[in-house]
Design brief:
This protein is of the alpha+beta class. Helices cover 31% and strands 29% of the residues. A hairpin with a 6-residue loop joins strand 5 and strand 6. Helix 2 crosses helix 3 and helix 2 runs parallel beside helix 6. It starts with a strand and ends in a 12-residue tail after the last helix.
Amino acid sequence: MGMVRNEHERVIEAPAEVVGALLDRLSAEDDPLFPTPAWQAMTFDRPLGVGATGGHGPVRYGVTEYEPGSRVRFAFTPPDNGFHEMSVEPAGEGRCRVRHVLESEPRGGDRLLWPAVVRPLHETVVEEVFDNIERAATGGCARPVRWSPRVRLCHRLLWDRPETVAVPEAARLLRAAVDRPGYEDAYRVPLLPGQPRDPEAWTGILRDAFPVIAREGDELLLEVQVRGLTARASILVDGRHVTLSSTVRTDTLGGRIYWGVVKRLHPFMARTMLRRTHRRLALAAPSAGERELERRRTPVSGPSHLVSG
């Protein structure tokens, strides 16, 4: 396989300067275009501009050319090669054309991965960026992209897995809940743009099977009702991560026998349930373009002298 050139374009019924202003917000905290949280956010080590380095997920690149309101080019970080760029140009009165171009020369195993996995995922993300441009610039999207069965399968298989961490210091309810626990564990996932910040929205991690018995700030404490055990679970949403923690004390011989079997499966089940809920809430969240429209509809609060008339 030689050089790959992949192009997408769409005519948007909005002036180029309107769409260009949206393009300038790529990677910002209020990025209205990149399709998070269904896909990992585009982030850089500094605001969008030449020299910024980062990427999205495992795809790494840096900004090599930037014309505010018009065009931005990203060069892939070695060992990858080539570039991708987004541009906006007028296409008549009150309309413009947005274009995304990728050029790269796949090498080694990437020659097989590009057609089988990378291209369908890449093309879906680009079309979702275009969908968000259309939503944010015109108020709606006529024909949003639909995921193919291959994209759905790859998305499910490649979704991030929780990492094992210590029980957070901020999980104060859990730390005080069980005296002399014999077992503790914690797993966390990143909180993505657009995902709910209220821990109540995350109780589906445990399939709503355990009652919430306390809440303090961003932490929920749940009672795990198993005879012979004193067990609690905590869901903590700290602004950057969602952490599922557990603590267990065995109280009877039956409880020790039961937990001796269950604790071998518990880490796998906890990680699986957290990952499944994380992905489900990401797919159910409003798109970046929809969030942008909602921000515009939300009145600005604050002192009256700071609000323009």
